[in-house]
Amino acid sequence: MSELILFFLLVVVTVLTPGPGVLYTISCGFRYGRRHLLLSPAAISLGVFITNVLTAAGLGVVVASSPRLYLAIQIAGALVLVYLGYRNWTAKVVDLSEAQNVNHSAREDNVIGAFTFGVLLSVTNPVLIVSLVALFPQFIHPDENYLQKAALLITIYTVVCFVGHTLYSSLTVWASRYLKGERVSRILNRGSAVLFWLISLGILGRMLPTS
Description:
The protein is an all-alpha fold. Helix content is 79%, strand content 0%.
């Protein structure tokens, strides 16, 4: 039981630490409002679940030990972030304080795309893959039923991820009520776009050979 508590605490810290996933959840919270409060939490959590399952199945080790495959995932992840940055930079400017009352028909067409990119953001996160490869063996012992223990750890990770991102999304939607004027929306859109691009540059920078 003490090991599960430790695993739980490690996952909580990991999930709540600001990164691409958290930034995406906050961005979606401002853009889609209360109507789609669970959009990003569900997308990020599904991606995390898929990555957890693949890691538990041994594919995470293959990725971590294959330079070319790992490089491909890094490039894919960077490209996803570049696109998300572009999308935020060119997003329509709205008064966030009125976001809950506007006609949402124009937004509905983008919901599936936003969900898809949320999943891709998690699945193509090389840091998540490597951390899971390092983390899982510490909590699954040879004398335990591997499938049962792996299923338990995956469940804990996914649930914590969903709850954590729902918290971020809820706080964002609540805060948007007090952010009046289109200027605030423009600053948030452009600011999040720049952050996405900086993170992608960081990923690409780590890929460069060191002397």
